[in-house]
């Protein structure tokens, strides 16, 4: 504010063609400005020197002519300095906040997911698949194995940290992904200690479930809606990163839970009423 | 005025230097001031960002965030058990209780999840369950939070029918509420967020009265 006003003054004052008087006038206010600046900023050494110039301003008049050139150069130097300082300070503030946002500020879950090396992001690579989510009965063909999104059965697989010891139906599992579950799958020949390690990440952990998946091209594959990560070993740290980034976050229906789903195993898609449970 | 300047100029050459020098002397000074101002502003902007994130709201490792995350999962199991009860039980009091639990706890999950979003935090954390509570880790049973039903309990509940189901549901819910109230007490001992305190106290009150109701139903059905 205080910087833009003097700039306005000087531009108004340089405009009249009555050059010398105008210049004399222009020479003084910047000097007064200099006094105000130095008083606020770094010591008052310039204050006393500038004050006489400020007082002389209302009087105007010719007698001042001899000193003009000196004053003019003094005035010229202050305008750009003030401007550059203002721009610099504003830029510094913007950069400062930017540095904060990049280094300390929270990343979105999408950014966290994208930063996991080797992750397949179908959300960006196949947006049509990402937005396909109709309820269909019977067997559904999926382009990915295990599937990561798409049409699915009306019933979801229970994903309250369920560890299934046999294969489950893709059509029910995809519905769980839609609710925000992370589905951990492993090739049945995965050593038992690794299966146990995976189960430890899932059991009792809401919005996760786990099941074997014959024919996997890697030992372990993790799915969330629109995302997949395949790894060779249960000790791979990216497994935890994937679960942290995408569990609940990847939900297409925030607020809907994981309970009340199918708890039976088998690759035939099940609607709840077909489930051999309770009554 | 001009005369004083003239006099000064006449008096010696040094005032003359003064008049030419200021721009030269001021430029580095101004630059220095600008640099200082920029560094100050940078620090302030950085600090403000940090402050806004970490102070105005409970942060990533806070008791409040840990409670919101863990209690959401704890509640989700109560909802799961109570939905089973609504589907399977024919005992009117038990069905009333189950309906009340489903409605209250699912709504409370929504409130806790909203806090996390408002605080700029993820719904899931990096910590083990109960890490936010003093001596919380020692309360875990097979990795489960206090009062949580084990996977075997849940399978048994799914498989049970008739009066056996009713008894098992009520017993599991009794444990669940007792564990939940214990967690609420752990939170209230350290929490400073008025909204969190409000909801947590409501949870404890609600679950204590439901515990009385459970006891009444258990007596009624002769368990």
Automatic annotation (TrEMBL), chain A:
Residues 15-35 have a biased composition (Low complexity). Residues 1-14, 262-279 have a biased composition (Polar residues). Coiled coil: none annotated. Residues 1-73, 257-279 are annotated as: Disordered. The keyword Membrane applies. Keywords: Membrane, Transmembrane, Transmembrane helix. It holds the Pfam family DUF3105. InterPro entries: DUF3105. This is DUF3105 domain-containing protein. It comes from Asanoa siamensis.
TrEMBL record, chain B:
Residues 1-14 have a biased composition (Low complexity). It holds the Pfam family DUF305. The chain crosses the membrane at residues 29-52. Residues 1-23 are annotated as: Disordered. Keywords: Membrane, Transmembrane, Transmembrane helix. Gene3D superfamilies: 1.20.1260.10. InterPro entries: DUF305_CopM-like, Ferritin-like. Residues 64-218 form the DUF305 domain. This is DUF305 domain-containing protein. It comes from Asanoa siamensis.
């Amino acid at each position: 504010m205080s910087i833009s006003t003097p700039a306005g003054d000087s531009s108004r004052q340089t405009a009249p063609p009555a050059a010398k008087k105008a210049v004399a006038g222009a020479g003084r206010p910047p000097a007064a400005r200099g006094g105000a600046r130095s008083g606020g900023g770094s010591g008052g050494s310039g204050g006393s020197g500038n004050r006489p110039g400020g007082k002389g301003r209302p009087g105007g008049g010719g007698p001042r002519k001899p000193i003009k050139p000196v004053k003019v150069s003094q005035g010229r130097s202050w305008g750009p300095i003030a401007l550059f300082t203002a721009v610099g300070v504003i830029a510094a503030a913007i950069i400062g906040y930017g540095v904060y946002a990049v280094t300390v500020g929270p990343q979105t879950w999408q950014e966290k997911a994208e930063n996991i090396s080797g992750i397949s992001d179908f959300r960006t690579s196949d947006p049509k698949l990402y937005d396909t989510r109709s309820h269909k009965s019977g067997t559904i063909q999926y382009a990915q194995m295990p599937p990561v999104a798409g049409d699915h059965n009306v019933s979801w697989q229970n994903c309250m940290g369920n560890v299934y010891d046999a294969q489950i139906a893709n059509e029910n599992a995809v519905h769980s992904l839609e609710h925000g579950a992370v589905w951990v799958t492993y090739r049945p020949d995965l050593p038992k200690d690794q299966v146990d390690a995976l189960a430890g990440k899932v059991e009792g952990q809401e919005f996760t479930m786990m099941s074997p998946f014959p024919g996997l091209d890697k030992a372990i594959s993790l799915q969330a809606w629109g995302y997949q990560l395949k790894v060779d070993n249960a000790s791979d740290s990216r497994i935890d990163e994937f679960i942290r980034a995408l569990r609940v976050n990847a939900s297409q229906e925030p607020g809907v839970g994981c309970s009340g789903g199918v708890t039976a195993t088998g690759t035939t898609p099940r609607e709840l009423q077909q489930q051999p449970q309770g009554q | 005025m001009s005369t004083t300047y003239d006099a000064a100029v006449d008096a010696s050459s040094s005032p003359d230097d003064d008049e030419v020098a200021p721009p030269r002397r001021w430029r580095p000074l101004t630059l220095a001031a600008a640099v200082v101002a920029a560094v100050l502003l940078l620090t302030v902007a950085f600090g403000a960002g940090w402050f806004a994130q970490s102070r105005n709201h409970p942060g990533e490792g806070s008791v409040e965030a840990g409670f919101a995350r863990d209690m959401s999962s704890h509640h989700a199991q109560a909802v799961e058990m109570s939905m089973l009860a609504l589907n399977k039980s024919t005992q009117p009091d038990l069905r009333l209780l189950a309906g009340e639990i489903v409605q209250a706890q699912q709504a409370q999950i929504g409130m806790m999840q909203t806090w996390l979003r408002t605080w700029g935090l993820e719904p899931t954390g990096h910590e083990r369950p109960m890490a936010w509570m003093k001596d919380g880790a020692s309360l875990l049973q097979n990795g489960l939070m206090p009062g949580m039903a084990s996977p075997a309990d849940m399978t048994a509940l799914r498989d049970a029918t008739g009066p056996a189901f009713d008894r098992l549901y009520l017993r599991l819910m009794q444990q669940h509420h007792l564990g939940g109230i214990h967690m609420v007490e752990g939170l209230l001992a350290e929490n400073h967020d008025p909204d969190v305190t409000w909801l947590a106290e409501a949870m404890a009150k609600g679950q204590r009265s439901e515990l009385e109701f459970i006891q009444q139903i258990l007596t009624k059905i002769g368990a």
